[in-house]
Amino acid sequence: MNKVIFITAPEVFRDEEYYKPKKILEDAGVEVTTASVKIGELTGRFGFKTISTLLIQDINPDDFDAIAYIGGGGSKVFFDNPSALKLANDFFKLGKPTASICIACVILANAGILKGKKATVFIDGKEELIKGGAIYTGNDLETDGNIITANGPDIAQDFGKAILKALEQKLIH
Fold first, then answer.
1. Which is it for the CA torsion 23, 27, 28, 30, positive or negative?
2. Which SS3 state, helix, strand or coil, does residue 43 take?
3. Residue 45: is its pLDDT beyond 90?
4. Residue 42's closest CA among 6, 13, 69, 67?
């Protein structure tokens, strides 16, 4: 069974960017674990609640097949977080799907893994992506190698499907 780790802010994450991809993955038999900077209840921008069972600094990339950074204003807590940036690098270097949605795509740019890669982000993060060396496309969803980026809540369902597709392709290879 595939396992995906969702990196989610303790508060003000975008509810639908969390629960829509999670449902798609779980419906396909993928185990989704939620991690944050704290253990326990996390609250989305619109009141959706979920539980973090793992601290980001305790994540072992060998235990998961993919990582997804969930967007929303709260994800800024990870922009300069050494553990969050190291995880992005570790998953990327292992060739595992490394995904982010909305403003959380800035995390991948700050981790230095978007250099020369096609990527998108919520419009507020465009300059950070370009500064991080990304080829900003402005598309709703972008996949370049093992990196998946999406620009916001309207594309959350397709974001989940893109992660699932990347996991399925990984099994074929």
1. positive
2. strand
3. yes
4. 13
Question: How many Å apart are CA 163 and CA 13, to the nearest integer?
Answer: 19
- Dihedral through CA 31, CA 37, CA 42, CA 46, nearest 10? -110
What is the C-alpha separation between 107 and 56, in angstroms, rounded?
Answer: 14
- pTM for the structure as a whole: 0.97
Backbone phi, then psi, for 116, in 5-degree steps?
75, 5
Structure tokens at 27: 């419906």
Pairing of strands 147-150, 141-144: antiparallel
Residue 25 to residue 22: CA distance in whole angstroms? 5
For residues 31-46, give the mean pLDDT: 98
Contacts of 123 (CB under 8 A, 6+ apart): 151
* Average pLDDT estimate for 34-55: 98
Residue 107: closest CA among 133, 130, 80: 80
Residues 66 and 38 sit within 8 Å (Cβ to Cβ): no
Residues 47-71 have pLDDT tens digits of 999 999 999 999 999 999 999 999 9
Query: What is the spatial distance between Cα 4 and Cα 1, in angstroms, rounded to a whole number?
Result: 10
* CA neighbours closer than 13 Å in the CB half-sphere of residue 47: 0
